[in-house]
Amino acid sequence: MSLGRDFRRLWVAFTVSAVGSAVGLGALPLIAVLALDSTTFQVSMLAALSAVAGAALALPLGDVIEQRRKRPVMIAADLVRFAVLVSVPVAAAFGVLTYAQLCVVGVVQAAATIAFQAASGAHLKALIPAEGRAEANSRFEQTNWISLSVGPAIGGALVSLVGATITLAVDAVSFLGSALGIRRIRQPEPEPVRRVGRADLTAGWRYIFGHRGLRALFWNSQLFGGPVMMTSPLLTVFMLRDLGLPAWNYGVSLGVCCLGGVLGARLAPRLTRRYGLHTMLLLFGVLRAPWLLLLPLAPNGWGGFVVITAAETGLLVAAGAFNPSFATYRMDVTEDGFMARVVGSWAITSRCVQPAFMALGGVLAALIGLRGALWVAGACCLTSAFVLPWKAARPAPLPEPV
């Protein structure tokens, strides 16, 4: 299906940004360790502070974004991310880089990312007609997983060759490329829906909880995304230390699993046309839920590598098919005057819930061991299937913007 020249421009801009972010994945903590000799606690705090403080900083932005055209907001968010990230290699070159600067960079980058997500969700809904949204979201999902398949390997090679600060500069420049690509879109944006009365920071959450389908998917996404992120740092230690696998096995497993996400996203539009959005959400929402329970069953050696790779690949095939369907459904059922706030509220919640699960994973690993923590993550993820929108979603009456 042809989605038009402007969509291709947006897609190219997204691809540049996604590849750059994948290449620079993990560069900030690497700089903290390699350039500043930060402690393990400081590195952990850098990640947690970036997520939570960035979400808090982004909290009032949803209403502001809703009242404006979305494309300038997206460009501004990209330029902010470019500026804060490029400040790190510049400061390092002059020998003035500090841990405090890294914290500020992490927080501002996180807030700008949430702002970009909120604006881009509303922008894509206005840019693409309803019949093309499943295809558009599928292409974005494929690009994301392809970037995650190859980007970290390229980033690792760059870190080895030119250092972590230069690798972070590559990530920064990718946001500049994204802003230039978005600037080339020609289709006029619709006039934003104006609010009457005072700003309401909770409007996005109220809209979500007032809609049966969105409310179910909101809890489903937290119960799925939290445990999955909880296993991410645990798997590194589990594979390298407990199972005795070489370090390259971890990278190979990650790359193969991400290709599963590409496959799922590629299948999503065709399956959606055949079975419909609601069936896709239920089918793949269930199929993605049980895979984490296989992780603690992994034996030592190559058998463990096979079990973990198969489990993660199965999970990402289902998630790759689920995510475009979910994004399309959220666009279809959310009114134009609430779209940016709904996406922003969703992103803020996820940015707080996922680090909390990761911290919980570390505590559980210390108390009951890595396998025990993985069992808990698997059980939590399984519960996500029970809160899917099993009944047809009907929007509750809400005050509409004027």
Relevant terms:
402 residues, mainly alpha, Growth Hormone, Chain: A, 2 domains, 14 helices, 77% helix, globular
**Main sheet makeup:** none
Number of domains: 2
Order of helices and strands: HHHHHHHHHHHHHH
Number of helices: 14
The CATH architecture category of the largest domain equals Up-down Bundle
Under CATH, the topology of the largest domain can be stated as: Growth Hormone, Chain: A
Structural features, described:
With 402 residues, the protein is mainly alpha-helical. It has 2 domains: 1-184, Up-down Bundle (Growth Hormone, Chain: A); 200-396, Up-down Bundle (Growth Hormone, Chain: A), CATH 1.20.1250. It is built from 14 helices and no strands. It has helices at residues 5-23, 27-34, 40-58, 61-66, 70-93, 99-127, 133-162, 164-183, 203-209, 212-242, 247-275, 277-287, 302-333, 339-383. The chain is globular, with a radius of gyration of 21 Å.
